[in-house]
Amino acid sequence: MNTLTTEALNARAIAGAVAVAGLLAAAFLRYRRALKYPRPPGPPGYPVIGNAFDLPPTQRWLKWAEWRDMYGPIVCLEMFGRRVVMLNDPQLVMQLLEKRSSVSADRPQLVLCMGLLGFGHSTVGLQHNATHKEARRLFNLTIGKSQLHKYTDLVQHEMQKLALKLLEGKGAKDNVTSSIRHAVGGIILAVTYALPVKDQNDPFIEDAEATMGIFARTSSPGTHTVDVFPFLQYAPSWFPGAGFKKYLALWKQQIRNSLERPVAVVKRELANGEVKTSVAHEIFAEANMSAQREEELKWLTGSMYLGGSDTTASAIHIFVLALTCYPDVQTRAQQELDSVIGDRIATLEDRPNLPYVNAIVKEVLRWHTVTPLGGPHRLTSDAEIGGYLLPKGTVVLGNVWGILHDEKYFSEPHEFKPERFLNAEDAAKFDQVKRPTASVDSWNHAFGYGRRVCPGRDLADMELWLAIATILSTLKISPTEGGLKPTFTSGSISHPVPFDCVIRPRNARMESLLRELS
């Protein structure tokens, strides 16, 4: 063996030894850190499966709140080797998911929802990469706060139409649910695609609702066995744990329909030279678009259309439920409207002068938040928080419902009391000096955290405020005989279980005005 060969082998051996030493050193340092920072507390699990079967199938936020009371501000579960950590303290949430969002902005890639069904291409499911950053930039350019003036008249008109539909339905539960969904869906269709909406059975709204139903059923971590055992995606549908495959093709086609059909209309209009104001008309006007770029933009517009309809509709539905259960809130709000704006319907320009109505918006977001457990984040590197070390890959959630119902931050947390968000001067106007307290702003938790905060939250906020102000201006909502106990659906997006109420006009003048404007 010549000298050059020997030297080359020696160099490789040295390089290999250095690499091994580096790996050992990294492992040792990780071990030392693990000794210094213990595992966060949580319920005891079983070998291999851990806590996989500890979470109930419904209303999981209640179980997490129970564990918060038992184990404290940080609760840890292990599921087949995957660590899931819930943060129950608002300061800890802000420290990790807001201030350190550079390491906590990824999403866990659930095999069924994000992989097989494709929601990993949506804005909510994208990894925090260049595509995600570009999507958020486009959201801000098209429906960010500076762009909302383009849509104010549209939203205001649709909310007036909603109030009339609620009035004509007289509070029947099917009418309340469908009218709210139709109004919000119509706004999102108009903003995203400039599509007109049929008064009933609109195919685009039906597509959106069906697709969001699929997302809600598949997007909660730990819900489907295939997310724990990925090999099940290759198993036949009769195999235990692979039953989802019976519906997979149907679900995928439904998702494609909701992405493709509205874009096809927009592209046809662009080809015909039609000029319309919408997000899709703006971004699909790009010349010589590659197939990959077109697919990304279909998911971008689809994310606006799908995500913006379901969550906002739920929030408005929660408001109607709250008025049904708490008539004194309605009375105070209408007294404020009468004293500030008189005998007309509130508009967005009135918002700075209506503190009690503004407080209702915050209380709607708090009383039953639409996403009780928020969206899951995945750490892209180790992170220290609250005296514990969370390894890379840990799934972290902010316990939104738990924080917004914690007696440390809200007195009487299960009651709907908007006055908790009034300052002392405004509270005195409503004889609410001895009001329940609120030391956390629900706005900071209801729309997500950090680089995963809802990019359409300003539009959603405008829709919610105008819905609340318009309904309070024009209608009187009351319970049916026997009262009502609030109940909510489970899933990553939670809605009120449909309920009956009684809806009448506030007075003849408001009914006439509604019919004229709508």
Q: What would your notes on this structure say?
A:
The protein has 518 residues and is α+β, with helices and mostly antiparallel strands. It has one domain: Cytochrome p450. Helix content is 52%, strand content 6%. The protein has helices at 3-36, 60-71, 90-98, 111-116, 130-143, 152-169, 173-193, 203-218, 225-228, 245-271, 279-283, 291-325, 327-340, 355-367, 400-404, 424-429, 443-446, 457-474, 508-517, and strands at residues 74-79, 82-87, 377-378, 383-385, 388-390, 395-398, 475-478, 502-505. A four-stranded mixed β-sheet has the order 1-2-6-3. It has a two-stranded antiparallel ribbon with strand order 4-5. A two-stranded antiparallel sheet has the order 7-8. Strand 1 (74-79) and strand 2 (82-87) form a beta hairpin. The chain starts with a helix and ends with a helix. 44% of the residues are buried. The model is unreliable at 15-35 (pLDDT under 50). GO terms for molecular function: heme binding; iron ion binding; monooxygenase activity; oxidoreductase activity, acting on paired donors, with incorporation or reduction of molecular oxygen. This is Related to O-methylsterigmatocystin oxidoreductase. Belongs to the cytochrome P450 family. Heme binds at residue 454.
How are the strands of the biggest sheet laid out side by side?
1-2-6-3
How far the N terminus sits from the C terminus, by CA atoms, comes to 93 Å
Average predicted confidence as pLDDT: 89
Q: Could you describe the largest sheet, including whether it forms a barrel?
A: 4 strands, mixed
Q: Helical percent range?
A: 40-55%
- Describe the global form: globular
Beta strands, count: 8
Rg from alpha-carbon coordinates = 26 Å
So, the CATH homologous superfamily?
Answer: Cytochrome P450
The level-1 CATH class? Mainly Alpha
How many structural domains in the coordinates?
A: 1
- Count of DSSP-assigned helices: 19
User: Unreliable segments (pLDDT under 50, ≥5 consecutive)?
Assistant: 15-35
Structural class label: alpha+beta
Question: Per DSSP, what share of the residues sits in E-state strands of 2 or more residues?
Answer: 5-15%
Second rung of CATH, namely the architecture: Orthogonal Bundle
Compressed to H and E, one letter per element, the order equals HHEEHHHHHHHHHHHHEEEEHHHHEEH
